[in-house]
Amino acid sequence: MYESLTIAQWVILAITALCIGMSKTGIQGVMLIIVPYMAMAFGAKESTGVILPMLCMADVVAVTYYKRIADWKEVIKLLPTAVLGFFVAIGVDKLIPTGGFRQLMAWTLALALVVMLWSEIYGKENKWMKKWWYASIFGLLGGFTTMIGNAAGPVMSVYLLSRRTGKMEYIGINAWFFLVVNLLKIPLQIFVWDNITWDTFELDLCMLPAIGLGAWLGIRIVRILPEKAFHHFIQIVTILSVAMMFV
Fold first, then answer.
1. 118-176 pLDDT, tens per residue?
2. Of residues 99 and 160, which shows the higher confidence score?
3. Which of 31, 100, 176, 182 could, after both became Cys, cross-link 23 (CB 3.0–4.6 A)?
4. Are 68 and 74 within 8 A, CB to CB?
C-alpha cells in the first residue's frame, strides 16, 4: 500500500494524524476539518478504515492523561443508543451508493449544528436537555455519524455544549465515550465493511509520531485557553467542520 500512495496522500494522512491527536486531548472537532480531504484522497467509506485505528491510538493517550476526569453517568446514558446507531449506519450503507456517504454525513452534522445554535440562542428556555430522550437522541446520532465517517465530534460537541459542561468535564466525557465507541466499531469495520486491513493498520502505525505530537499540542492549548474561550473555539470549529462537509 505504501508504494501506491502519492505525496499528497501522505501529507493529508500526516495532517489527519496530527489533528486526531489534538482533537482527542481537548481540541475536539478540529479533525473534522480534514475529514473531507481524507474522503477525497482515499474514498469516503475507505477513509474511515484508515482513520479508525488512529483514533483508537489517540483515545488511549487521552484516557491515560485524563483518566480521572469524566462523568460516567453521561457516558453510560449515551452508549446504548450509540451502539444502535452503528447498525442504523450499516443498514443505510446498503441503501445508498458510496458517493452518497459524504452528503449524508454533511446533512446529519448540519442538523446537529442547528440544535447547537438553537440552544445557544434560547439556552435559558431550552428544556429539552432535561428530558430522558435527549441523551438518547444524541447517542444515536453520534453512533450513526461515527460509523459512516468517524464524524461524531461535532455531535458530541453540540450535546456537551448544550448541557453547559465545564472544559475539563467536556474533555473527560469525550475521551472515555470515544474510546469505548471506537473499540466497539473495529470488529464491524473489519468483518462487515472490510475496510480495515493489515496494510491500512501498518499505515496507521507510521502515523504514531504525528498522533503523539498532536496530543501534546492539544494538551498545551487546553491549558492556556480560558473556559469561555475554549467553548467559543469549539463552537467555531464545529461550524467550520460542518461547512467543510458541503464543499
1. 766 765 555 666 777 888 988 998 898 888 777 777 778 778 877 778 888 888 888 89
2. 160
3. 31
4. no
What is the spatial distance between Cα 168 and Cα 157, in angstroms, rounded to a whole number? Answer: 13
DSSP characters over the chain: -GGG--HHHHHHHHHHHHHHHHHHTT-TTGGGGTHHHHHHHH-HHHHHHHHHHHHHHHHHHHHHHSTT---HHHHHHHHHHHHHHHHHHHHHHTTS-TTHHHHHHHHHHHHHHHHHHHHHHTGGG--GGGSHHHHHHHHHHHHHHHHHHS--HHHHHHHHHHTT--HHHHHHHHHHHHHHHHHHHHHHHHHTS----HHHHHHHHHTHHHHHHHHHHHHHHHHHS-HHHHHHHHHHHHHHHHHHHT-
Q: Crossing angle for the helix pair 227-245 and 100-121, nearest 10 degrees?
A: 150
Q: Are 215 and 22 in contact (CB under 8 A)?
A: yes
**One-letter amino acid of 23:** S
Query: pLDDT per residue over 54-94, tens digit each?
Result: 999 999 999 988 877 777 888 899 999 999 998 988 888 77
Domain boundaries, the chain: 2-245
Q: Going by C-beta distance under 8 Å and a sequence separation of 6 or more, which residues neighbour residue 172?
A: 66, 68, 69, 70, 71
Instruction: State percent of the chain over pLDDT 90.
Output: 26
Please state, in angstroms and rounded to a whole number, the distance separating the CA atoms of residues 8 and 14. Answer: 10
Q: What are phi and psi of 66, to 5 degrees?
A: -110, 30
* Cβ-Cβ contacts under 8 Å for 125 (sequence gap 6 or more): none
Rounded CA gap, 30 and 12, in Å? Answer: 14
